[in-house]
Design a protein that fits this description.
Distance between the termini: 10 Å
Structural class: alpha/beta
Largest sheet: 11 strands, mixed
Number of strands: 31
Number of helices: 21
Length: 643
């Protein structure tokens, strides 16, 4: 009997499931905390909890993760040097100070506009190689001729041993600026992705498991892990993609809206007739527009582990994620007593970091580039939780809010605080951790907000519920002002929203919100069995998909019968006749998609290949098309290949 293993490493939890290949039945599942800075601990813990008899017969491992997404959102990727070749829009902001614009580049036909200034590239690399961990290169019309990008890459590899990412390797779409940003973000993710993938591989191999390894991409398809190491940018939003596929699979609904309530955020997605909705433009992550095609989604920075804090008498939720008090009490001996005896903070001093329920603990990440204030505070914070009062006492003054925020942003410090998960523990809706710590925190914050303890927790739950509803409706009704939706949800008008498609909820404590959500919207709300490990199941049910675009154009409109250019992911080729160019492009596209999908363990006989052809010519044009665009798609299902 053969089995498949799905793993999802989220910002808070690492989930794992084992599925029997013969009938798709989930035979075992569990979850563990994601560990930082190395995720290996979390992966090891969750796999240790699974049945060893099933594990030794695993033949396929598929993984999804939000680690790349969280790294970009939190600005914790590795420093990257960016080299722009040609005439780039210098008035636009670039995501790094270590950037240079050098002469070079090509035109729309792939002909050189000016020679590459290789000396300027060499000087930049030598001056920055001690400051960065990787390089990104993007040249004007690099997709039409990557020669200058490749020459730059070769020189960097001669001068350093660092990873180098070229824009043409990631996207065949026009847009030099967006390709530059995509290449930069991809380069910044290589170290964290390499650490994650190697952690999975090492643990799997250590257990004697010989299995094919795949990783879920942000469009809902899977790829072999080697591709993920080269193109980690394609794993951004693979966590939400897994949520969508897992929710659809578990609920048996091929058309539905999906709400994934995680620790860090709440994601809204949809699937129609079994096909995920893909964003028509490139994914936007951390405020940067990329050329990466991803599942269409909306994300709210409010999750189960969002920080609940009070200023004045108002309770706020988020946007930062913290370790819940109920979890910290289990993880750290003596924390409960430390929380119980922590003294109040003056109302005038209250802010997100200055709370009676707020604690800080060192993460183990390597510190670099710290200023004196950051070094001073980090030296005080240890491996046991310290309150803001403790830190102030040891500093002999309150720490700067900016310093604390910076240390959290750099992942050097983990914050602990009251969360919606704690509120659910107080109400008795959810009891996975230490309810006593949650109750102590609720009493502290409710006093400040002048509410009773249970009233305060009811208020927090109501805010989370309405936020879920608001984000769902804003996603379904993209052209409706958010303020209008809020007014209806707040019962300012005698109307109620009705959602015609099923709404599937997944995530740890989502059952706790079903009744309240049903009071504010009318819909079929489904929480399937195994909803708490839906992402790990989604990682397994993704398909192997490869989409390739190839363009054919005449070199010159003055001689449109002869001399044609083919622009493809492998570069630029030239042919005398149009049919020669068309045959070459067709064969190349099919070869690329079959090669990619077969690396997912799918036999060529089970790969479906389709091709669409769009030809553009002006009216009355009596020559071969002015432009021919081929789109070749290969599709296969890894799980079906195992049956």
């Amino acid at each position: 009997m053969q089995y498949s293993l799905g793993i999802d490493a989220g910002g808070t939890y690492t989930d794992a499931v084992i599925i029997r290949d013969s009938d798709g039945e989930v035979v075992d599942s569990n979850k563990s905390f994601t560990t930082y800075p190395n995720p290996l601990g979390g992966i090891k813990n969750v796999l240790d909890s699974l049945d060893k008899q099933y594990l030794k017969n695993v033949s396929l491992v598929s993984v999804s993760t939000t680690l790349s997404t969280n790294s970009l959102l939190e600005g914790t990727g590795d420093p990257v040097g960016l080299i722009l070749v040609g005439d780039h829009p210098v008035e636009k902001e670039f995501p790094t100070k270590d950037a240079i614009l050098v002469s070079g580049g090509h035109d729309h036909n792939g002909e050189e506009v000016s020679p590459l200034d290789i000396d300027a590239v060499r000087e930049f690399v030598l001056s920055t190689k001690n400051e960065v961990a990787a390089y990104a290169v993007s040249a004007n019309f690099g997709i039409r001729n990557p020669e200058h990008e490749l020459r730059t890459k070769e020189l960097i590899r001669q001068l350093t041993s660092m990873p180098v990412v070229c824009g043409h390797e990631l996207s065949q779409e026009l847009g030099a600026y967006e390709r530059a940003v995509t290449a930069f973000l991809n380069a910044s993710l290589i170290p964290i992705t390499t650490t994650f993938v190697n952690s999975v591989i090492s643990d799997i191999r250590r257990r004697g498991i010989e299995a094919r390894m795949l990783i879920l991409r942000c469009d809902g398809s899977v790829a072999n892990v080697e591709d993920a190491l080269n193109k980690p940018i394609e794993t951004i939003f693979s966590g939400p993609a897994a949520s969508l596929l897992g929710a659809s699979h578990l609920s048996g609904r091929k058309t539905c809206a999906v709400i994934d309530v995680g620790g860090t955020s709440t994601d809204l997605l949809s699937i129609h007739d079994g096909v995920p909705k893909i964003s028509s433009s490139g994914a936007v992550v951390g405020g940067w527009k990329t050329r990466v095609k991803a599942i269409k989604m909306e994300t709210s920075a409010m999750g189960g582990d969002s920080h609940v804090w009070v200023k004045g008498e108002t309770a706020y939720i988020g946007p930062r994620r913290v370790m819940p008090l109920c979890v910290a009490s289990v993880n750290y001996d003596g924390f409960l007593e430390k929380l119980r005896h922590n003294r109040m903070i003056s109302r005038n001093d209250l802010n997100e970091n200055f709370q009676q329920t707020r604690f800080f603990v060192k993460t183990g990440y390597k510190a670099r580039g710290l200023n004196d204030s950051e070094k001073e505070v980090l030296n005080i914070i240890d491996n046991e939780p310290a309150s803001i009062n403790d830190i102030s006492r040891m500093l002999k003054r309150p720490p700067s809010v900016f310093t604390l925020d910076s240390l959290i942003q750099k992942r050097l410090v983990q914050a602990i605080g009251f969360t919606p998960t704690d509120a659910l523990h107080v109400r008795g809706d959810y009891n996975a951790w230490d309810s006593e710590a949650a109750n102590i925190g609720a009493e502290m914050l409710s006093r400040v907000s002048r509410m009773g303890k249970y009233e305060f927790c009811d208020h927090i739950k109501e805010k989370v519920t309405k936020n879920i509803a608001l984000n769902l409706l804003s996603f379904i009704l993209p052209n409706t002002p958010e303020s209008a939706i809020e007014n209806i949800l707040n019962e300012e008008y005698p109307v109620k929203f009705k959602v015609e498609i099923p709404v599937v909820m997944i995530g740890g404590p989502v059952r706790s919100y079903v009744d309240e959500l049903g009071e504010v919207i009318e819909a079929e709300i489904i929480v399937p069995d195994l909803a708490d490990v839906g992402n790990a199941i989604g990682a397994l049910v993704g398909k192997g998909i490869k989409r390739v675009e190839i363009n054919i154009r005449p070199f010159s409109l003055t001689s449109p019968e002869n001399d044609f250019l083919v622009f493809s992911p492998v570069g630029r080729q030239r042919f005398e006749k149009y049919l020669e160019a068309l045959d070459f492009a067709t064969d190349l596209g099919k070869r690329i998609v079959k090669d990619h999908v077969s690396k997912c363990g799918i036999p060529e006989s089970q790969i479906q290949v389709t091709m669409s052809k769009k030809m553009v010519s002006p009216e009355g044009w009596a020559h071969p098309p002015m432009e021919t665009k081929l789109v070749i798609v290969g599709v296969g299902t890894p799980l079906l290949a195992l049956k």
